[in-house]
Amino acid sequence: MSLDESTQEAARKPHDRLADWLAADMDAVNGLIRERMASEHAPRIPEVSAHLIEAGGKRLRPMLVLAAARLCGYGGPFHVHLAATVEFIHTATLLHDDVVDESQRRRGRPTANLLWDNKSSVLVGDYLFARAFQLMVEPGSLRVLSILSDAAATIAEGEVLQLMAAQDLGTDEATYLKVIRGKTAALFSAATEAGAVIAGADEGRVQALRTYGDALGIAFQIVDDLLDYGGADAALGKNTGDDFRERKVTLPVIKAVARANPEERAFWSRVIEKGDQREGDLEEARRLMDRHGAMAAARAEALDWAARARAAMAGLPDEPLREMLEDLAAYVVARIS
Fold first, then answer.
1. Residue 199: closest CA among 320, 34, 324, 316
2. Is residue 110 reached through a cis peptide bond, with omega within 30 degrees of 0 on the bond before it?
3. How many CA atoms lie within 13 Å of 94's alpha carbon, on the beta-carbon side?
4. What pLDDT, in 10s, does the model give residues 81-105?
5. What span, in angstroms and rounded, lies between the C-alpha atoms of 203 and 205?
6. Any idea of the CA torsion for 203, 134, 89, 81, to the nearest 10 degrees?
7. Cβ atoms within 10 Å of 81's Cβ, excluding its own
8. What angle do CA 253, 257, 260 make, to 5 degrees?
9. 11-334 in CATH: which number?
């Protein structure tokens, strides 16, 4: 490879480089997803599933399974089944989330619950969960089954905890971390851990990859919560300010409330706890966050979790896949730099 080609390769987004490296495996995953989301008797199932699955998502979670397995020397074929499993779990949770949040946009498109109805979204989500469990059984590994089924339970628990914490200004950072570790990081860490386990990796590598996935998932969610108050619609795949309108108490809000004076706390109480939101309130929320350095402090935490993810990879083989995963952790937080 020439110097110019090396420079161009380094400049590409880590996710794109990872996708290219895993292209053949991902083709197999996508084929399996299309096969298993089919339904002989209920055509609405593939209609609703395809609307979300084929909407241009980055397929990050299944790629983490594939990358972890390949990094640990696995030759296949069951990493494909596990990658499809995590994508089905992820898609099912998105379908359910959009109903709970009454969302109207997902990945830049109208949500399934808006195009069809809430009942269809919930039931198709249930179908995808069932398909996920069928897929995770096929490799015949009880440990992998335990990892992924535990993750499914943890995700549901995280979503319920978020529902309990929503609109509650008493929510602290410890509770927020439990929420995002459940709703987001659990599937990231299950993806990397399952990939290592199916490859028969030693316990040190399994735990390293689990730690990487957990830290990456936490950094990813903190960044997503930050972008809701300062990102473009194209970057988000949703409307900027969705979390504010849905009155979610995310890390930037928690930090701003902790530093608020009585007048500012009254504002947060009105818009979050009471739901009395008026024109210009989103801009005021951003101004208060900037005043107290809430965004910068949350960004620092995201950077710290990304650094933990990269550090977890130190003992793994020094090869291109490891470098891509390390770069991916850096890229996740570079979106808010």
1. 316
2. no
3. 24
4. 999 999 999 999 989 888 887 777 7
5. 5
6. 60
7. 22
8. 140
9. 1.10.600.10
